[in-house]
Amino acid sequence: MLRSFVTVGGWTMLSRILGLVRDQLLAAFMGAGPMQDAYQVAFRLPNMFRRLFGEGAFNAAFVPQFSAILTTEGRGVARTFAREALGVMLFWLTGLTILGEVFMPEVVSVIGPGFRNAGQGADQFRLAVELSRITFPYLVLICAAALVSGVLNGMGRFAAASAAYVSFNVIGIAAILWLTPFTPTVAHAAAWGITASGVAQFALLLIAARRAGIVLGIPRPRLTPRIRKLMRAMVPGLIGSGVTQLNLVVDTAIGSLLPKGSISLMYFADRVNQLPLGVLGAAAGTTLLPVLARHIAQGHETDAHAAQNRSIEYALILTLPATLGLVVLSYPIMATLFGHGAFSDRDAFLSAQSLRAYAIGLPAFVMVKVLSPGFFARGDTSTPVRIGMATLALNLALNLALYHPLLHVGPPLASSIAATVNAAALGVMLYRRGGLKVDRGCRGRLLRMGIGSLAMTAALIALEQTALGHVATLRGVTRIAGMAALIGAGGVAYGVALQMLGVTDLRTVAAGVRRRLMRKKA
Fold first, then answer.
1. What is the pLDDT at residue 309?
2. Residue 335 and which of 141, 326, 383, 406 are 20 to 30 A apart at CA?
3. Residue 522 clears pLDDT 80, i.e. is over it
4. Which of 6-20, 102-116, 326-340, 474-488 shows the lowest per-residue confidence on average (mean pLDDT)?
5. What is the per-residue DSSP string for 170-232?
6. Angle at CA 254, nearest 5°, toward 251 and 259?
7. How confident is the model at residue 280 (pLDDT cuts 50, 70, 90)?
8. Distance CA 264, CA 262 (A)
9. What angle do CA 147, 151, 155 make, to 5 degrees?
10. CA distance 224 to 229
11. What does pTM read for this prediction?
12. What is residue 226's predicted lDDT score, i.e. its pLDDT?
């Protein structure tokens, strides 16, 4: 499981890094203003589906069922089930896309209600509708790609599925750089890049599935007993594991009621927060679900508990220091990543405030992804749904209470509080039902990880009293080097703390790396 975790995490890390490059281009060309806000609203809806289906709810329903069929009935029956699921999915989502294209003004009014206000201007609303119509077909392509990805994950082939998502950012970068001269605005070019990337991802995953021995055609949609079972598991799962994304949509809707540029400020902060969340949370959830499903299907509850504990440790060993690091270094991080072109130093400072609010909830966001598979692998999708709906209502209430006094900090803080409540409720319910048994060793390691993270934070605060504390005011390569020095120093401090506290043994890790390299050479 650790090897799969590292594989998925590595490819996801590459995708996130390329995503930061793409976002840097968006910031440099559009800054934080009305055009950027319109583009982000157009991007929010298909991106929500990407995260729901690519990293969450669909896999939660599909992978356990596909894995069970593959294990008990063989590859042929599993392939038939996957083809039937693909046919039904494409049929329904194509219809949804057509409706979305026709009623896009009403959809945009829900996601960005503030755009219709007189102060925002009718041009911004029209631009948001136009861009949304360009990006909306992406949801069909990415949902179909997610099904093929689930097939590969169910077969234990995590690398191909994770690698395909890199194309989203590669094509997005290319569209911004080379398609812009042929479109009305850079926002149009970026929107076309989103849809084009969906075509590429679906095609690459179909090729990977074919190489794995699963040829997926598109049969006539039929509601077979297995498909009905899948839909029953998937519909509540969409709500349960998608609460984080629904919360972000609420943030966007509330953000449209704030001063111009607020949606952009929160978006870029969320993108930085999504780097550790996407890498660690997605990797843990993706690799844990099929492992839990196999153990539970075989009646090995002890092994399932052990896998759950190790997944918590793998995720939090980097999430805890990332959380504190983002809080302490939020302004220099935002200035270094986005403080160029049309994105001003003031934009970076304000966006850093949103980042701190998002970072507070980072461990909770990750734990939601780690704990949810414990329910899904046992066929329980109703509990995460109930908890998710309660926290969604809490997030909306907090948004309404905080957005006026805190402006662009209110919605991120509301999301973090809601995610914390969500994770706590999932943990308590899973423990009460016997699905979570955190052993003494896991508890001790988590405590020592927390102490190590605090030691790293103390080192960073001390460094900020030196010349490195002025990184945000520097320019060019000097600022990048200063930021790298701060992050590197924090990483060294954390690594030394973990070594001293006995959480890790660097000599054992180094020996394992050497053995792997020697095997590859042999």
1. 78
2. 406
3. no
4. 6-20
5. HHHHHIIIIIGGGSSSHHHHHHHHHHHHHHHHHHHHHHHHHHTT-----PPP---HHHHHHHH
6. 115
7. low
8. 5
9. 160
10. 9
11. 0.74
12. 83
Amino acid at site 283? A
The pLDDT tens digits for 401-411 are 998 888 889 99
262 with 347: CB under 8 angstroms? no
Residue type at position 113: P
Nearest residue to 66 via CA among 368, 376, 374 = 376
Give the phi and the psi of residue 411 in degrees, each rounded to 5: -60, -45
Q: What pLDDT, in 10s, does the model give residues 457-503?
A: 999 999 888 888 888 787 778 888 888 899 899 989 998 998 888 88
Cα(280)–Cα(369) distance, integer angstroms: 9
Tokens standing for 448? 């020592």
Distance of CA 465 to the CA centre of its chain: 34
Mark out the alpha helices in 31-56 (DSSP H runs): 34-55
Nearest to 273 by CA among 360, 340, 172, 210: 360
* pLDDT-above-70 percentage for the chain: 83
> Average pLDDT of 220-226?
81
3-state secondary structure (DSSP) of residue 435: coil
Residues 263/255, Cβ–Cβ less than 8 Å: yes
Q: For residue 71, how many C-alpha atoms fall within 13 Å in the half-sphere facing its CB?
A: 16
* Mean pLDDT, range 267-273, rounded to an integer: 87
Structure tokens at 498: 């973990």
pLDDT confidence of residue 325: 92
DSSP characters for 373-406? HHHHTTT--HHHHHHHHHHHHHHHHHHHHHHHHH
At position 195, the amino acid (one-letter code) is T
E-strand spans in 239-286?
A: none
Burial (CB count <10 Å: 0-12, 13-18, 19+), residue 128:
buried
Alpha helices in 434-522 (DSSP H): 440-463, 476-501, 506-521
CA distances from 354 to 10, 331, 417 (A): 27, 10, 14
The mean pLDDT value for 217-238 works out to: 75
